[in-house]
Design goal:
Two copies of one chain form a homodimer.
Chain A: H1 5-13, H2 16-27, H3 32-36, H4 43-55, E1 59-61, E2 70-72, H5 76-103
Antiparallel strand pairs in A: 1-2
The structure holds a DNA duplex (30 and 30 nucleotides).
Chain lengths: 123, 123
DNA sequence: CGCCTCCTCAACCAAGTGGTTGACAAAGGT
DNA sequence: ACCTTTGTCAACCACTTGGTTGAGGAGGCG
């Protein structure tokens, strides 16, 4: 399974059931049984989902008698927002610069096809 | 494949190669060949990755002769940040309230074990 | 002690994923 | 007109995934 943390977090949240679990855990800690109840899948399936979330660092399980209360570790979410925001902003910045270029260019029928012209090719 | 848009976006970014593609596309549009060059996988593999990104709405492909310049559609990222932020904030809020409760409670040796006590059990 | 509850582990299965290779369409270059 | 470049489609493969059932461990309860 994907070694890097970021992939694990993204993958963990790529499942609707898992996202719903996170949503519910944002409200309150809960036991596996409580969490499983609304969905019509087995408790084992939910337990597996929780393990995925745990491996992603999104959730922690402690002990309370036979119960294993699940707790949301929300900090990991910042990892994602950091990544996302970085590139969203970068893309925005690029569009802004492109607009500037286009604005300062009266008309040039060759470059209207695409911005491919200013590509910085590696190697 | 996961029907809902949010799952598709999360799943799309759960792969390091795909995240790298997004990162590079944030800088500039590029052709499939350009994008494939740095990785030591086939062009077909990259083309597949791009399709996943496209299905997630993260990327669009146009035409320029035989080339198919790929363009990043950064707006979809907001879908994710919206989701993430919502629950991160909700969790934070909860911790704040819990702190308040604990602060207003001098000492109660029974409730120190866990916050399980204030669980709102359904049905 | 014996049972019942809560949960995980193990084995299995169908479907999806990331990769490969091979064939081929589309468009230019010569 | 050919050949080359650029990219997709299709078939195939190993592996992962989300689900199932069955067994079992850990810990109260009568």
């Amino acid at each position: 399974m994907a070694a890097d943390p970021l992939s694990r977090v993204f993958a963990a949240l790529a499942d609707p059931t898992r996202r719903d679990l996170v949503a519910r855990l944002a409200v309150a800690d809960a036991t596996v049984g409580d969490l499983a109840e609304p969905y019509d899948v087995s408790v084992q399936a939910v337990s597996k989902h929780l393990r995925v979330l745990e491996d992603a660092g999104l959730v922690s399980r402690s002990r309370d008698a036979q119960r294993r209360p699940v707790h949301l570790e929300a900090e990991v979410l910042d990892l994602m927002t950091a990544w996302i925001e970085r590139y969203r902003r970068q893309a925005e910045e690029r569009y802004r610069r492109l607009d500037d270029v286009l604005a300062s260019m009266p008309d040039d029928s060759d470059s209207t096809t695409g911005p491919t012209t200013e590509r910085g090719n590696p190697s």
